Amino acid sequence: MTRHARNCTAGAVYTYHEKKKDAANSGFGTTSRRIGKDSVKSFDCCSLTLQPCRTPVITSDLFHSKDGYLFDKEAILTYIISKKNEYGRKMKEYEKQSKADEEDRAAQADAEVQKKLDKFISTEKNIVTNKTLKPNDQPSTSGAMSNVSLGKRKELPSFWVPSQTPSAKVARLEKPDSKIYCPVSGKPLKAKDLIDVKFTLVKDASDRKSLIAKENRYMCAVTHDILNNAVPCAVLKPTGDVVTIECIEKIIKKDMIHPLTNEQLEDSDIIPLQRGGTGFATTNEKLEAKEQKPCLQV
To answer: Which of 10, 141, 201, 261 has the fewest Cβ atoms nearer than 10 Å?
Structure first.
């Protein structure tokens, strides 16, 4: 009878623990791991600061795609301003590079003209007429064949002179993009497209804890269901109220009327609230990580 232990090696079955341990040691196979609670931000936290939002805003769904990321207004506006300043700095560097390129092209054109002129002058100086030659004399080729007189000194640099050796070229700057992109979705972002979000506080007179210390802080504006990471939510664009997806499917989508203001709604007015994403993991996506280990090659 085999031992009932983790490190039992006499069993006839290749257990899951043994398979996982061998895969980790060998570097082969796929290891699945569930993300813990500490790796997932709360639904009411800013996607930049990862802290509860004091003035929450959400990105609008302009292109009918997966938007709806929550930010603290102060944090996202600071991000937009910093990106604008960065664009201004990069644009100045690009303009400086473009101006230097124009000056180099102009100087190169002038150098080509001067080179042709010097070559013509040097050739004219070395012309020897037949009147000055005697029958037994040969024309002197010292001047005509001299690299110095023909200006070859600059064309044939000395490889041992540090100033004339090949050097690494400076990296070329590309023209910066003037658009500002969302730090989470990577799509164009404008400050005027941000929508104010209004969370409905849970009313409990007996609970005297601070808002951050409370486990259940907010509820649905219509059904008063408690909101958390396990409850899919959405924002109603006209008023910014946060409701559950269940409320939208069962109540709002029947007549497409706002339950609190009786205002007519459209599909674009319902923005799903993305939850669970952090600076290290995308939101509600399949995450994969690869680890490179040394292996023997035949």
So the answer is: 10
